[in-house]
Write a structure and sequence with these properties.
The radius of gyration is 22 Å and the shape is globular. The longest helix is centred in the N-terminal third of the chain and has 32 residues. The chain folds into 2 domains: 131 residues; 93 residues, Cytochrome Bc1 Complex, Chain D, domain 2 (Orthogonal Bundle), CATH 1.10.760. It is mainly alpha-helical. A hairpin with a 3-residue loop joins β1 and β2. A 3-stranded antiparallel beta sheet has the order 1-2-3. Helices cover 40% and strands 4% of the residues. Bound molecules: heme C (2 copies). One heme C (HEC) binds next to α3, α4 and α6. One heme C (HEC) binds next to α9.
Length: 305
């Protein structure tokens, strides 16, 4: 009996050690990932200085403000006691900010390739969408950011609970680093279709605004990178938006309220960036969404709430 207890004890202890070791390996896998340094010299992008271009950049920056705050001075944009704290960077190049001393090339590296000045992969920052901006639009966006007055602001350091490090290492939050999914070779000399209501222009908007990150590769519903977000629904013909008129589609983004009466939370469904575009650009997005095949034909709805 004594011997039996002894062996049971040893086995249990072994199991506990194994679980601890496995969790430590997963946590380190995640922690090593954002300390990696990648060397990458982005293809140069011309940065304009005229006021019309800076105005275009201001429009394109509206989507950034959800995470980087309305004045682009950065904020704690994620804070959950079970998961941790993630501040977004201060983009105003203020003293002691993450972007202090950022050159044009550093901005292109961050926006097109998902790397900070030192070459560490950026977390949660959606460069896999922003990378699709044309050279011209990217130039306007950077020109606008460079025109911002410096805002000095401090926020708590990024930290994650041990449990969330283990979960991230196990891939439960999906891919957190845009760098891993960007086509780095293709991210240069990008042109956009002319601004208008064409399906091609709408597809361009959907690409740089990252609808697929949340609504899935075929827009049929997906998973948000934000672990506390409601599920992003099907936005093709088999979902609600497929049935909306153009006016209803535009009004949804401008007011944050859908024709079915649902009030969208801008924190989870970032509609402000689209609302900042002109009617004709949103019409392009509408035409593009309408052109997509139904993702979940009858009886096969995956993202019903
Ligand atoms: C979903 C939230 C989110 C959105 C939207 C977003 N960012 Fe970020 N961004 C972040 C976070 C978080 C970081 C910091 C990542 C890190 O520390 O690893 C970051 C980092 C950056 C950096 C790198 C700064 C540094 O720390 O070196 C730049 C530049 C940047 N963002 C610009 C933009 C611009 C411009 C837009 C809009 C086109 C934008 N971001 C949209 C979350 C976001
Ligand atoms: C960061 C994730 C995210 C991104 C990026 C995103 N969405 Fe969403 N979207 C959501 C979520 C989450 C909801 C559901 C919100 C809710 O249930 O309150 C939603 C809802 C919607 C709805 C309302 C659908 C309905 O049936 O009520 C539309 C339309 C929509 N999104 C279109 C888009 C388009 C177009 C894009 C790209 C330009 C986009 N979204 C980008 C997360 C996202």
């Amino acid at each position: 009996m004594k011997k039996f207890l002894k062996w049971t004890g040893i086995t249990l202890l072994g199991l506990v050690l194994l679980v601890l070791l496995a969790s430590w390996i997963l946590a380190s896998k995640f922690n090593n990932e954002f300390e990696k340094v990648y060397t990458l010299t982005p293809a140069p992008v011309a940065i304009p200085t005229d006021s019309a271009s800076i105005e275009r950049g201001r429009t394109l920056s509206v989507g950034c403000r959800n995470c980087h705050d309305v004045d682009m001075g950065g904020k704690v944009f994620f804070d959950d006691p079970n998961i941790g704290v993630l501040p977004s960077s201060n983009l105003t190049r203020a003293k002691d900010s993450e972007t202090e001393g950022y050159t044009d090339e550093d901005f292109v590296r961050a926006l097109r390739h998902g790397l900070n000045k030192k070459g560490n992969p950026l977390m949660v920052m959606p460069s896999e969408a922003i990378t699709h901006l044309s050279d011209q639009d990217l130039g306007c966006l950077i020109a606008f950011i460079k025109s911002l007055p410096p805002i000095e602001r401090t926020f708590p350091k990024r930290h994650f609970t041990y449990m969330s490090q283990v979960m991230a290492g196990a891939g439960l939050f999906g891919n957190l680093f845009a760098y891993n999914v960007i086509d780095h070779e293709g991210a240069k000399n990008i042109t956009a279709p002319p601004i208008g209501n064409s399906i091609e222009y709408g597809a361009y908007v959907a690409r740089f605004d990252g609808c697929k990150i949340c609504h899935g590769a075929n827009f049929g519903g997906g998973k948000s990178p934000d672990p506390v977000s409601p599920p992003p629904p099907d936005i093709t013909k088999s979902g609600n938006p497929g049935k909306w008129t153009l006016e209803q589609f535009i009004s949804t983004f401008r007011t944050g309220k859908t024709p079915e009466g649902k009030v969208l939370d801008g924190k989870f469904m970032p509609f402000a960036g689209i609302a900042a575009l002109s009617d004709v650009e949103i019409e392009g997005l509408y035409n593009y969404i309408q052109s997509l095949p139904a993702a979940n034909p009858a009886g096969n709805k995956i993202a019903e709430k």
